Amino acid sequence: MTVSPQRGVQEDLEPQGARQRDHRRCCRADRLVRLALLLPDALFRVAAFQILAGYFAFQMVVVASLRARVMGWIPGGQWSLGKWGWPVGIGALVYGVLSMIVLARPNGDTHLAFFDRWIALIGFIVVAAVGLTYMAIAKPYRHSTAPEGDAIAIANLLREHAPNTTCRHSPRTCRWRAAD
Asked: Is 89 within the bounds of a domain?
C-alpha cells in the first residue's frame, strides 16, 4: 500500500495501465498461437514478412552510416573498424539487399494462390505504404525533439574528450581503448 498526496491510498504498486498492456500482449501472443494452429503455413508467412521488415530496418541504418561516411563522418567512439568500415558497410548493404530479394521472392509452389506466394512482399508494401501515408499526412518528424544531423559534431566531441590513448596510428585515426 502506498500513499500519495495526489491519489490518496493505493492498494497495489503496479499501475493499472501496465496490467492492461500485459493483457494486450498476452492476447496478441494468444492470437498468433491460434493462427499457427489453425493455419500451420501462416507462421512461415508471418515470419517471412517480419524478417523482410527487419532486414529493411537494418538496411536503413547501413545506408545512413554509408551516407554519413560520404559526408565526412569518422566514428568517434573508442572502437572503430577504421579503414575496414567502408568494405564492411558495403558488404552489409549487399548482403541485406540480396537477403531481402530472397525473402520477397514468391514461394516456388505454383499450386498456391498468388496472394499466398507473394505474402511477404505484399505485407511489406502495405505496411510501408501505410507508414509513408502517415508520414505525408501527419508529418510527425516536424514535431520531434530528437537530435538530428549531429553525428559529425558528436564524433568530434567524443574525440576531444577522449582520455589519452596509446596508439600506433596517427591521433586523428586512433581508435584504441584508453591506456589504464
From this structure: yes
Q: Is residue 15 situated within a structural domain? A: no
> 79-96 pLDDT, tens per residue?
788 889 899 999 999 999
Count how many domains the chain has: 1
Q: Check pLDDT > 70 for residue 175.
A: no
Q: Which cell is 35 given? A: 493462427
Q: Higher confidence at residue 150 or residue 13?
A: 150
Residue 152 lies in a domain: yes
Per residue in 135-144, pLDDT tens? Answer: 999 998 888 8
Range of the domain at 155: 47-160
